[in-house]
Amino acid sequence: MNMSEIDVVIIGGGPGGYVSAIKAAHLGLNVVLVEKDKLGGVCLNRGCIPTKALVSTAELLNHLQRGGEFGIQVKDYSIDFPAIMKRKDLITQRLSSGVEQLMKANQVRIVRGEGQIIEPGKVEVTDTAGQKEIIKTKNIIMATGSSVMSLPIPGIDIEGVITSDEALSLSELPSRMLIIGGGVVGIEFAGIFRALGVRVTVVEMLPRILLPIDEEIARRLTQLLKRKGIEILTDCKVKEIKKNNQN
């Protein structure tokens, strides 16, 4: 275990963390950024960016399917799901590498591992090998971001039940998918996987989907999603998840 002293330690390498690191570096401070995962946070690695990469694929498929309306006949095409996911991964990797280059350009030291405040002015970092480093600092910024919430539903941990993070790491395209929750994330995944040919059902416990959105807009979106073949069940609460004989 060794000890070093620094002006600012930032725990978390997402948008809050790396932007703070750059700003602090511009002010002439010595900065350490602690991150256990890829730089860029949830948005870049498991949220906005990878889902938008998949949305662009879904939009292209929609254009192909509607080609006849524009006088273009597209009769022979196939979906290569591994290639779709590889493209998504390459996009996120390139952007994450860009964040890392920004850190190097601003002389921000990146420490890979989990950071823990053990006392005022001291952060203990444990890397993947279990090695510990204590960093003495005058300032600490907590930018730990968010994580996927597990629902309190019996059976939520059985095989085949996945989070939105895991949906972005699927190796095979499922034939059917049930999505619990008709919020922005759930509906975005519903549209993506339906475009890829998956039979999708959305279950929402509230009277309508996309509750924060204006009611008229949400109603029109519901109609559009149903026309695309997405089954939407509102006022429905999932009480338990069980495996059937067909898994």
TrEMBL record:
GO terms for molecular function: dihydrolipoyl dehydrogenase (NADH) activity; flavin adenine dinucleotide binding. Residues 7-246 form the FAD/NAD(P)-binding domain. Keywords: Disulfide bond, FAD, Flavoprotein, NAD, Oxidoreductase, Redox-active center. The lineage of its organism: unclassified sequences, metagenomes, ecological metagenomes. This is FAD/NAD(P)-binding domain-containing protein. GO terms for biological process: 2-oxoglutarate metabolic process. Gene3D superfamilies: FAD/NAD(P)-binding domain. Its cofactor is FAD.
